[in-house]
Write the C-alpha coordinates for this entry.
Amino acid sequence: MNAWARVGREVLLALRNTGRALVMLGEAIVNIRHVFSRQNRYETIHQMFVSGIKSLGVITVVALFTGMILALQTGLELRRFGQEVNIGTAVTVVLLREMGPFMTGLIIAASVGSAIAAQMGTMVVAEEIAALEIMSINPVRFLVMPRLVALALIMPFLTMYTNAVGILGGAIVGYTQLGVSFTAYFDNCTRFAENKDLFVGLFKAIIFGVIVVTVACHQGFATTEGAVGVGRSTRRTVIIAFLTILTMGYFITRMFYK
Amino acid sequence: MIRFEKVHKRLGGRVVLDGVDLQIEPGETFFIVGASGAGKSVTLKHMVRLLTPDAGRVWVGDDCVSTARGHKLEQIRSRFGVLFQGAALLNWISAGENVGLPLLERTNKPEHEIEKLAREKLALVGLAEAYDKMPAELSGGMRKRVGLARAIITAPEIVLYDEPTSGLDPVTSRAIDQLIDSLRRELGITSVVVTHDLHSALAIATRIAMLDEGRVVALGTPEQFIKSPNEKVQQFLESQYITKRGAWEKAAAL
Protein backbone atom coordinates (compact mmCIF):
# COMPACT_ATOMS: atom_id res chain seq x y z
CA MET A 1 0.00 0.00 0.00
CA ASN A 2 1.50 3.35 -1.00
CA ALA A 3 1.66 6.43 1.22
CA TRP A 4 -1.40 8.13 -0.34
CA ALA A 5 -3.48 4.99 0.01
CA ARG A 6 -2.43 4.74 3.64
CA VAL A 7 -3.38 8.38 4.31
CA GLY A 8 -6.71 7.85 2.54
CA ARG A 9 -7.40 4.76 4.63
CA GLU A 10 -6.62 6.62 7.87
CA VAL A 11 -8.89 9.52 6.86
CA LEU A 12 -11.75 7.13 6.05
CA LEU A 13 -11.19 5.34 9.36
CA ALA A 14 -11.26 8.65 11.25
CA LEU A 15 -14.46 9.68 9.47
CA ARG A 16 -16.09 6.35 10.24
CA ASN A 17 -15.15 6.60 13.93
CA THR A 18 -16.40 10.20 14.09
CA GLY A 19 -19.67 9.11 12.52
CA ARG A 20 -20.08 6.25 14.99
CA ALA A 21 -19.26 8.52 17.95
CA LEU A 22 -21.86 11.07 16.75
CA VAL A 23 -24.50 8.35 16.32
CA MET A 24 -23.77 7.21 19.89
CA LEU A 25 -24.03 10.82 21.10
CA GLY A 26 -27.37 11.20 19.31
CA GLU A 27 -28.66 8.02 20.94
CA ALA A 28 -27.51 9.27 24.35
CA ILE A 29 -29.29 12.61 23.81
CA VAL A 30 -32.50 10.81 22.77
CA ASN A 31 -32.25 8.75 25.98
CA ILE A 32 -31.96 11.81 28.24
CA ARG A 33 -35.72 11.41 28.78
CA HIS A 34 -34.86 8.41 31.00
CA VAL A 35 -32.55 10.42 33.26
CA PHE A 36 -34.99 10.36 36.17
CA SER A 37 -35.56 6.59 36.07
CA ARG A 38 -34.54 4.66 39.20
CA GLN A 39 -31.10 3.46 38.17
CA ASN A 40 -30.13 6.45 36.00
CA ARG A 41 -31.05 9.05 38.62
CA TYR A 42 -28.60 7.59 41.13
CA GLU A 43 -25.93 7.00 38.48
CA THR A 44 -26.13 10.59 37.18
CA ILE A 45 -25.71 12.06 40.68
CA HIS A 46 -22.87 9.63 41.36
CA GLN A 47 -21.12 10.65 38.13
CA MET A 48 -21.53 14.34 39.00
CA PHE A 49 -19.85 13.63 42.32
CA VAL A 50 -17.04 11.58 40.73
CA SER A 51 -16.31 14.05 37.93
CA GLY A 52 -17.01 17.20 39.92
CA ILE A 53 -16.08 16.95 43.57
CA LYS A 54 -13.21 14.51 43.04
CA SER A 55 -11.61 16.78 40.43
CA LEU A 56 -11.68 19.88 42.61
CA GLY A 57 -8.21 19.33 44.09
CA VAL A 58 -6.34 19.27 40.79
CA ILE A 59 -8.55 22.02 39.33
CA THR A 60 -7.72 24.28 42.30
CA VAL A 61 -3.98 23.89 41.84
CA VAL A 62 -4.08 24.31 38.04
CA ALA A 63 -6.47 27.28 38.18
CA LEU A 64 -4.53 29.06 40.93
CA PHE A 65 -1.22 28.80 39.09
CA THR A 66 -2.80 29.62 35.71
CA GLY A 67 -4.13 32.86 37.20
CA MET A 68 -0.80 33.57 38.87
CA ILE A 69 1.17 33.00 35.66
CA LEU A 70 -1.24 35.12 33.63
CA ALA A 71 -1.02 37.96 36.16
CA LEU A 72 2.77 37.79 36.38
CA GLN A 73 3.36 37.69 32.61
CA THR A 74 0.89 40.45 31.73
CA GLY A 75 1.78 42.47 34.86
CA LEU A 76 5.52 42.55 34.09
CA GLU A 77 4.80 43.86 30.57
CA LEU A 78 2.17 46.35 31.73
CA ARG A 79 4.54 47.67 34.44
CA ARG A 80 6.85 48.94 31.68
CA PHE A 81 4.03 51.36 30.80
CA GLY A 82 2.90 51.95 34.38
CA GLN A 83 -0.36 50.08 33.68
CA GLU A 84 0.05 47.11 36.02
CA VAL A 85 -3.22 48.01 37.71
CA ASN A 86 -4.95 46.64 34.58
CA ILE A 87 -3.86 43.04 35.19
CA GLY A 88 -7.31 42.38 36.70
CA THR A 89 -8.92 42.99 33.31
CA ALA A 90 -6.37 40.86 31.44
CA VAL A 91 -6.63 37.91 33.82
CA THR A 92 -10.44 38.00 34.01
CA VAL A 93 -11.12 38.33 30.28
CA VAL A 94 -8.60 35.64 29.33
CA LEU A 95 -9.94 33.25 31.98
CA LEU A 96 -13.64 33.83 31.24
CA ARG A 97 -13.32 33.62 27.48
CA GLU A 98 -10.66 30.96 26.97
CA MET A 99 -8.45 29.66 29.72
CA GLY A 100 -11.18 28.78 32.26
CA PRO A 101 -13.18 26.38 30.06
CA PHE A 102 -10.05 25.24 28.20
CA MET A 103 -8.06 24.31 31.33
CA THR A 104 -11.12 22.69 32.93
CA GLY A 105 -11.78 20.73 29.73
CA LEU A 106 -8.21 19.46 29.58
CA ILE A 107 -8.18 18.45 33.26
CA ILE A 108 -11.51 16.63 32.91
CA ALA A 109 -10.36 14.93 29.68
CA ALA A 110 -7.19 13.69 31.38
CA SER A 111 -8.76 12.64 34.67
CA VAL A 112 -12.43 11.80 34.06
CA GLY A 113 -12.20 10.99 30.31
CA SER A 114 -9.38 8.51 30.76
CA ALA A 115 -11.20 6.90 33.71
CA ILE A 116 -14.42 6.54 31.68
CA ALA A 117 -12.53 5.03 28.72
CA ALA A 118 -10.72 2.58 31.00
CA GLN A 119 -13.96 1.59 32.71
CA MET A 120 -15.86 1.07 29.44
CA GLY A 121 -12.90 -0.78 27.92
CA THR A 122 -12.61 -3.09 30.91
CA MET A 123 -16.36 -3.73 30.76
CA VAL A 124 -16.06 -4.70 27.08
CA VAL A 125 -13.16 -7.06 27.82
CA ALA A 126 -15.00 -8.60 30.81
CA GLU A 127 -18.11 -9.11 28.61
CA GLU A 128 -20.15 -6.84 30.89
CA ILE A 129 -21.36 -4.80 27.91
CA ALA A 130 -22.43 -8.02 26.16
CA ALA A 131 -24.22 -9.05 29.38
CA LEU A 132 -26.13 -5.74 29.39
CA GLU A 133 -27.16 -6.26 25.76
CA ILE A 134 -28.42 -9.77 26.52
CA MET A 135 -30.44 -8.37 29.44
CA SER A 136 -31.94 -5.89 26.89
CA ILE A 137 -30.31 -3.03 28.79
CA ASN A 138 -29.12 -0.45 26.28
CA PRO A 139 -25.47 0.34 27.22
CA VAL A 140 -25.80 3.85 25.78
CA ARG A 141 -28.79 4.64 27.99
CA PHE A 142 -27.35 2.81 31.01
CA LEU A 143 -23.74 4.03 30.84
CA VAL A 144 -23.27 6.91 28.37
CA MET A 145 -26.35 9.04 29.05
CA PRO A 146 -25.84 9.48 32.83
CA ARG A 147 -22.20 10.46 32.24
CA LEU A 148 -23.20 12.87 29.47
CA VAL A 149 -25.82 14.59 31.62
CA ALA A 150 -23.49 14.65 34.63
CA LEU A 151 -20.58 16.26 32.79
CA ALA A 152 -22.77 18.68 30.81
CA LEU A 153 -24.26 19.87 34.11
CA ILE A 154 -21.10 19.93 36.20
CA MET A 155 -18.72 21.48 33.64
CA PRO A 156 -20.13 25.05 33.84
CA PHE A 157 -19.81 24.96 37.64
CA LEU A 158 -16.26 23.61 37.46
CA THR A 159 -15.40 26.31 34.94
CA MET A 160 -16.84 29.04 37.16
CA TYR A 161 -14.77 27.61 40.00
CA THR A 162 -11.64 27.61 37.77
CA ASN A 163 -12.34 31.24 36.83
CA ALA A 164 -12.82 32.28 40.45
CA VAL A 165 -9.66 30.54 41.70
CA GLY A 166 -7.66 31.82 38.70
CA ILE A 167 -8.77 35.41 39.34
CA LEU A 168 -7.85 34.98 43.02
CA GLY A 169 -4.41 33.68 41.97
CA GLY A 170 -3.96 36.79 39.83
CA ALA A 171 -4.92 38.97 42.78
CA ILE A 172 -2.31 37.31 45.00
CA VAL A 173 0.45 37.89 42.43
CA GLY A 174 -0.78 41.44 41.80
CA TYR A 175 -0.63 42.26 45.50
CA THR A 176 2.63 40.47 46.37
CA GLN A 177 4.70 40.96 43.19
CA LEU A 178 3.29 44.00 41.43
CA GLY A 179 2.00 46.16 44.24
CA VAL A 180 -1.61 46.21 43.00
CA SER A 181 -4.08 46.40 45.88
CA PHE A 182 -6.93 43.89 46.09
CA THR A 183 -9.50 46.69 45.78
CA ALA A 184 -7.91 48.06 42.61
CA TYR A 185 -7.49 44.56 41.17
CA PHE A 186 -11.10 43.49 41.71
CA ASP A 187 -12.45 46.87 40.53
CA ASN A 188 -10.48 46.32 37.36
CA CYS A 189 -11.73 42.73 37.00
CA THR A 190 -15.34 43.82 36.54
CA ARG A 191 -14.70 46.96 34.52
CA PHE A 192 -14.13 45.44 31.07
CA ALA A 193 -15.38 41.88 31.41
CA GLU A 194 -18.84 41.42 29.89
CA ASN A 195 -21.61 38.93 30.61
CA LYS A 196 -21.04 37.63 27.08
CA ASP A 197 -17.50 36.55 28.05
CA LEU A 198 -18.87 34.52 30.95
CA PHE A 199 -21.73 32.93 28.99
CA VAL A 200 -19.61 32.01 25.94
CA GLY A 201 -17.09 30.44 28.32
CA LEU A 202 -19.80 28.43 30.06
CA PHE A 203 -21.23 27.35 26.68
CA LYS A 204 -17.75 26.11 25.76
CA ALA A 205 -17.58 24.24 29.05
CA ILE A 206 -20.79 22.32 28.27
CA ILE A 207 -19.51 21.45 24.77
CA PHE A 208 -16.16 20.31 26.19
CA GLY A 209 -17.96 18.07 28.70
CA VAL A 210 -19.98 16.50 25.88
CA ILE A 211 -16.77 16.00 23.85
CA VAL A 212 -15.00 14.25 26.74
CA VAL A 213 -17.87 11.81 27.40
CA THR A 214 -18.46 11.08 23.71
CA VAL A 215 -14.81 10.42 22.93
CA ALA A 216 -14.21 8.41 26.13
CA CYS A 217 -17.28 6.18 25.78
CA HIS A 218 -16.75 5.63 22.05
CA GLN A 219 -13.10 4.70 22.52
CA GLY A 220 -13.96 2.50 25.52
CA PHE A 221 -16.68 0.62 23.61
CA ALA A 222 -14.30 0.10 20.67
CA THR A 223 -11.74 -1.64 22.88
CA THR A 224 -10.30 -4.91 21.62
CA GLU A 225 -7.36 -7.10 22.66
CA GLY A 226 -7.69 -7.14 26.45
CA ALA A 227 -5.58 -5.09 28.84
CA VAL A 228 -3.36 -3.71 26.06
CA GLY A 229 -6.48 -2.52 24.27
CA VAL A 230 -7.77 -0.78 27.41
CA GLY A 231 -4.48 1.13 27.67
CA ARG A 232 -4.69 2.07 23.98
CA SER A 233 -8.28 3.31 24.34
CA THR A 234 -7.34 5.42 27.36
CA ARG A 235 -4.39 7.02 25.57
CA ARG A 236 -6.46 7.70 22.43
CA THR A 237 -9.23 9.24 24.52
CA VAL A 238 -6.89 11.80 26.08
CA ILE A 239 -5.26 12.69 22.75
CA ILE A 240 -8.51 12.91 20.73
CA ALA A 241 -10.32 14.82 23.48
CA PHE A 242 -7.41 17.32 23.81
CA LEU A 243 -7.32 17.96 20.05
CA THR A 244 -11.10 18.20 19.72
CA ILE A 245 -11.37 20.60 22.67
CA LEU A 246 -8.64 22.76 21.16
CA THR A 247 -10.19 22.93 17.70
CA MET A 248 -13.80 23.30 18.91
CA GLY A 249 -12.62 26.03 21.29
CA TYR A 250 -11.31 27.99 18.32
CA PHE A 251 -14.49 27.59 16.27
CA ILE A 252 -16.76 28.59 19.16
CA THR A 253 -14.61 31.66 19.77
CA ARG A 254 -14.79 32.45 16.04
CA MET A 255 -18.56 32.05 16.13
CA PHE A 256 -19.08 34.58 18.95
CA TYR A 257 -16.17 37.03 18.43
CA LYS A 258 -15.94 38.23 14.84
CA MET B 1 -35.81 -24.87 19.85
CA ILE B 2 -32.45 -23.55 18.56
CA ARG B 3 -31.42 -24.39 15.01
CA PHE B 4 -28.21 -23.60 13.14
CA GLU B 5 -28.48 -23.81 9.35
CA LYS B 6 -25.13 -23.96 7.54
CA VAL B 7 -23.65 -21.16 9.65
CA HIS B 8 -20.35 -19.70 8.45
CA LYS B 9 -18.30 -17.12 10.32
CA ARG B 10 -14.85 -15.61 9.75
CA LEU B 11 -13.12 -13.56 12.44
CA GLY B 12 -9.84 -11.75 11.80
CA GLY B 13 -9.51 -13.49 8.43
CA ARG B 14 -9.78 -16.96 10.03
CA VAL B 15 -12.68 -19.35 9.43
CA VAL B 16 -14.22 -19.96 12.86
CA LEU B 17 -17.50 -21.64 11.88
CA ASP B 18 -17.56 -23.62 8.66
CA GLY B 19 -21.11 -24.63 7.82
CA VAL B 20 -22.35 -25.56 11.29
CA ASP B 21 -25.69 -27.41 11.42
CA LEU B 22 -27.15 -28.00 14.88
CA GLN B 23 -30.56 -28.58 16.39
CA ILE B 24 -31.12 -28.21 20.13
CA GLU B 25 -34.43 -29.52 21.49
CA PRO B 26 -36.49 -27.99 24.33
CA GLY B 27 -35.54 -29.26 27.80
CA GLU B 28 -32.11 -30.47 26.71
CA THR B 29 -28.82 -29.90 28.49
CA PHE B 30 -26.76 -29.61 25.34
CA PHE B 31 -22.97 -29.48 25.65
CA ILE B 32 -20.65 -28.06 23.00
CA VAL B 33 -17.08 -29.23 23.55
CA GLY B 34 -13.84 -28.81 21.66
CA ALA B 35 -10.33 -27.45 21.84
CA SER B 36 -9.57 -23.74 22.27
CA GLY B 37 -10.35 -21.85 19.04
CA ALA B 38 -12.69 -24.58 17.80
CA GLY B 39 -15.58 -22.09 17.61
CA LYS B 40 -17.53 -23.02 20.76
CA SER B 41 -18.01 -19.54 22.25
CA VAL B 42 -18.63 -18.09 18.78
CA THR B 43 -21.43 -20.65 18.33
CA LEU B 44 -22.94 -19.57 21.66
CA LYS B 45 -22.73 -15.87 20.76
CA HIS B 46 -24.65 -16.48 17.52
CA MET B 47 -27.63 -17.77 19.54
CA VAL B 48 -28.19 -14.32 21.10
CA ARG B 49 -26.88 -12.31 18.16
CA LEU B 50 -23.75 -11.06 19.88
CA LEU B 51 -22.31 -12.18 16.54
CA THR B 52 -24.03 -12.37 13.15
CA PRO B 53 -23.27 -15.17 10.67
CA ASP B 54 -21.50 -14.35 7.39
CA ALA B 55 -23.72 -16.99 5.80
CA GLY B 56 -26.45 -19.29 7.09
CA ARG B 57 -29.06 -18.63 9.76
CA VAL B 58 -29.74 -19.25 13.42
CA TRP B 59 -33.33 -19.85 14.52
CA VAL B 60 -34.79 -19.66 18.01
CA GLY B 61 -38.18 -21.33 17.76
CA ASP B 62 -39.85 -19.74 14.73
CA ASP B 63 -37.76 -16.56 14.94
CA CYS B 64 -34.61 -15.98 12.91
CA VAL B 65 -32.23 -14.36 15.41
CA SER B 66 -29.63 -13.68 12.70
CA THR B 67 -31.82 -11.11 10.95
CA ALA B 68 -33.89 -9.82 13.89
CA ARG B 69 -33.52 -6.16 14.85
CA GLY B 70 -34.81 -3.73 17.45
CA HIS B 71 -37.80 -4.87 19.47
CA LYS B 72 -37.89 -8.30 17.82
CA LEU B 73 -34.27 -8.95 18.82
CA GLU B 74 -35.02 -7.81 22.38
CA GLN B 75 -38.00 -10.16 22.44
CA ILE B 76 -35.84 -13.10 21.33
CA ARG B 77 -33.08 -12.22 23.78
CA SER B 78 -35.60 -12.03 26.63
CA ARG B 79 -36.06 -15.80 26.21
CA PHE B 80 -32.39 -16.28 27.20
CA GLY B 81 -30.27 -16.04 30.30
CA VAL B 82 -26.50 -16.10 29.85
CA LEU B 83 -23.77 -17.05 32.29
CA PHE B 84 -20.56 -15.52 30.92
CA GLN B 85 -17.14 -17.04 31.47
CA GLY B 86 -16.09 -14.39 34.01
CA ALA B 87 -19.69 -13.97 35.25
CA ALA B 88 -19.69 -10.36 33.86
CA LEU B 89 -21.01 -8.84 37.10
CA LEU B 90 -21.05 -5.05 37.35
CA ASN B 91 -18.40 -4.25 39.94
CA TRP B 92 -19.92 -1.06 41.37
CA ILE B 93 -23.16 -2.65 42.61
CA SER B 94 -23.66 -5.48 45.12
CA ALA B 95 -24.22 -9.13 44.22
CA GLY B 96 -27.92 -8.79 45.04
CA GLU B 97 -28.30 -5.66 42.93
CA ASN B 98 -26.56 -7.46 40.06
CA VAL B 99 -29.07 -10.28 40.31
CA GLY B 100 -32.03 -7.88 40.43
CA LEU B 101 -30.71 -5.63 37.65
CA PRO B 102 -32.64 -7.22 34.72
CA LEU B 103 -35.92 -6.81 36.63
CA LEU B 104 -35.06 -3.28 37.77
CA GLU B 105 -34.32 -2.22 34.20
CA ARG B 106 -36.95 -4.15 32.27
CA THR B 107 -39.97 -4.30 34.54
CA ASN B 108 -42.01 -1.96 36.72
CA LYS B 109 -41.83 -4.24 39.74
CA PRO B 110 -41.35 -2.35 43.03
CA GLU B 111 -37.84 -2.45 44.47
CA HIS B 112 -38.81 -4.49 47.57
CA GLU B 113 -40.27 -7.20 45.33
CA ILE B 114 -37.15 -7.24 43.14
CA GLU B 115 -35.00 -7.58 46.27
CA LYS B 116 -37.16 -10.50 47.47
CA LEU B 117 -36.81 -12.28 44.11
CA ALA B 118 -33.05 -11.62 43.99
CA ARG B 119 -32.66 -13.08 47.49
CA GLU B 120 -34.68 -16.15 46.42
CA LYS B 121 -32.47 -16.74 43.37
CA LEU B 122 -29.31 -16.25 45.42
CA ALA B 123 -30.64 -18.83 47.90
CA LEU B 124 -31.34 -21.18 44.98
CA VAL B 125 -27.66 -21.07 43.99
CA GLY B 126 -26.56 -21.46 47.63
CA LEU B 127 -25.57 -17.85 48.28
CA ALA B 128 -28.40 -16.58 50.47
CA GLU B 129 -25.95 -14.58 52.59
CA ALA B 130 -24.21 -12.83 49.67
CA TYR B 131 -26.86 -10.21 48.80
CA ASP B 132 -24.93 -7.23 50.15
CA LYS B 133 -21.45 -8.41 49.17
CA MET B 134 -19.64 -6.57 46.38
CA PRO B 135 -18.42 -8.70 43.42
CA ALA B 136 -14.79 -8.02 44.44
CA GLU B 137 -15.45 -9.77 47.77
CA LEU B 138 -16.60 -12.99 46.08
CA SER B 139 -14.51 -15.97 44.98
CA GLY B 140 -14.55 -17.14 41.34
CA GLY B 141 -17.09 -19.89 42.09
CA MET B 142 -19.34 -17.50 44.03
CA ARG B 143 -19.21 -14.94 41.20
CA LYS B 144 -20.33 -17.63 38.74
CA ARG B 145 -23.20 -18.63 40.99
CA VAL B 146 -24.27 -14.97 41.30
CA GLY B 147 -24.04 -14.75 37.49
CA LEU B 148 -26.26 -17.84 37.26
CA ALA B 149 -28.78 -16.32 39.70
CA ARG B 150 -28.89 -13.20 37.48
CA ALA B 151 -29.29 -15.34 34.36
CA ILE B 152 -32.36 -17.13 35.73
CA ILE B 153 -34.13 -14.29 37.59
CA THR B 154 -36.23 -13.43 34.53
CA ALA B 155 -37.33 -17.09 34.27
CA PRO B 156 -35.80 -17.62 30.81
CA GLU B 157 -36.63 -20.62 28.64
CA ILE B 158 -32.99 -21.12 27.68
CA VAL B 159 -29.79 -20.55 29.66
CA LEU B 160 -26.42 -20.37 27.89
CA TYR B 161 -23.27 -21.16 29.86
CA ASP B 162 -19.84 -20.11 28.59
CA GLU B 163 -17.20 -22.24 30.32
CA PRO B 164 -19.13 -22.43 33.62
CA THR B 165 -16.48 -24.51 35.39
CA SER B 166 -13.28 -23.01 33.99
CA GLY B 167 -10.86 -21.83 36.68
CA LEU B 168 -12.83 -23.54 39.45
CA ASP B 169 -11.71 -26.32 41.77
CA PRO B 170 -13.23 -29.79 41.12
CA VAL B 171 -15.62 -29.62 44.09
CA THR B 172 -17.04 -26.22 43.04
CA SER B 173 -17.17 -27.43 39.42
CA ARG B 174 -19.34 -30.37 40.38
CA ALA B 175 -21.57 -28.08 42.45
CA ILE B 176 -22.09 -25.90 39.35
CA ASP B 177 -22.84 -29.06 37.30
CA GLN B 178 -25.49 -30.06 39.82
CA LEU B 179 -27.03 -26.59 39.68
CA ILE B 180 -27.26 -26.74 35.87
CA ASP B 181 -28.78 -30.20 36.07
CA SER B 182 -31.28 -29.18 38.74
CA LEU B 183 -32.43 -26.23 36.60
CA ARG B 184 -33.35 -28.69 33.82
CA ARG B 185 -35.02 -31.19 36.12
CA GLU B 186 -36.86 -28.75 38.38
CA LEU B 187 -37.60 -25.78 36.12
CA GLY B 188 -37.49 -27.44 32.68
CA ILE B 189 -34.92 -24.91 31.46
CA THR B 190 -33.09 -25.70 28.22
CA SER B 191 -29.35 -25.36 28.78
CA VAL B 192 -26.56 -24.93 26.27
CA VAL B 193 -23.13 -25.34 27.82
CA VAL B 194 -19.81 -24.54 26.18
CA THR B 195 -16.90 -26.20 27.97
CA HIS B 196 -13.58 -28.01 27.80
CA ASP B 197 -14.63 -30.05 30.80
CA LEU B 198 -15.66 -33.47 29.53
CA HIS B 199 -16.29 -34.72 33.05
CA SER B 200 -19.14 -32.20 33.34
CA ALA B 201 -20.41 -33.03 29.87
CA LEU B 202 -20.48 -36.77 30.45
CA ALA B 203 -22.14 -36.33 33.84
CA ILE B 204 -25.09 -34.06 33.00
CA ALA B 205 -25.44 -33.62 29.21
CA THR B 206 -28.42 -35.00 27.35
CA ARG B 207 -26.37 -34.62 24.14
CA ILE B 208 -22.83 -33.52 23.32
CA ALA B 209 -21.54 -31.91 20.13
CA MET B 210 -17.83 -31.63 19.43
CA LEU B 211 -16.52 -28.81 17.29
CA ASP B 212 -13.20 -28.96 15.50
CA GLU B 213 -11.97 -26.25 13.14
CA GLY B 214 -15.46 -24.79 12.94
CA ARG B 215 -17.22 -28.06 12.09
CA VAL B 216 -19.34 -30.46 14.10
CA VAL B 217 -17.29 -33.67 14.12
CA ALA B 218 -19.35 -35.63 16.64
CA LEU B 219 -22.88 -35.38 17.99
CA GLY B 220 -24.78 -37.71 20.29
CA THR B 221 -25.69 -38.78 23.79
CA PRO B 222 -22.81 -39.13 26.29
CA GLU B 223 -22.79 -42.87 25.62
CA GLN B 224 -22.67 -42.39 21.83
CA PHE B 225 -20.06 -39.65 22.24
CA ILE B 226 -17.67 -41.73 24.32
CA LYS B 227 -17.97 -44.62 21.87
CA SER B 228 -17.43 -42.38 18.85
CA PRO B 229 -14.80 -43.77 16.49
CA ASN B 230 -13.82 -40.21 15.50
CA GLU B 231 -10.10 -39.71 16.07
CA LYS B 232 -10.53 -36.12 17.35
CA VAL B 233 -13.10 -37.25 19.92
CA GLN B 234 -10.86 -40.02 21.16
CA GLN B 235 -7.89 -37.63 21.40
CA PHE B 236 -10.03 -35.19 23.36
CA LEU B 237 -11.20 -37.93 25.74
CA GLU B 238 -7.68 -39.20 26.28
CA SER B 239 -6.37 -35.68 26.92
CA GLN B 240 -8.61 -35.60 30.00
CA TYR B 241 -7.57 -39.12 31.09
CA ILE B 242 -11.01 -40.48 30.25
CA THR B 243 -11.16 -44.08 29.08
CA LYS B 244 -14.31 -45.38 27.41
CA ARG B 245 -15.25 -47.61 30.32
CA GLY B 246 -14.11 -45.56 33.31
CA ALA B 247 -15.73 -42.31 32.31
CA TRP B 248 -19.07 -43.75 31.42
CA GLU B 249 -19.24 -45.64 34.69
CA LYS B 250 -18.46 -42.43 36.57
CA ALA B 251 -21.02 -40.52 34.57
CA ALA B 252 -23.67 -43.15 35.13
CA ALA B 253 -22.92 -43.11 38.87
CA LEU B 254 -23.77 -39.38 39.02
Remarks:
- The two ends of chain A are 44 Å apart (CA to CA).
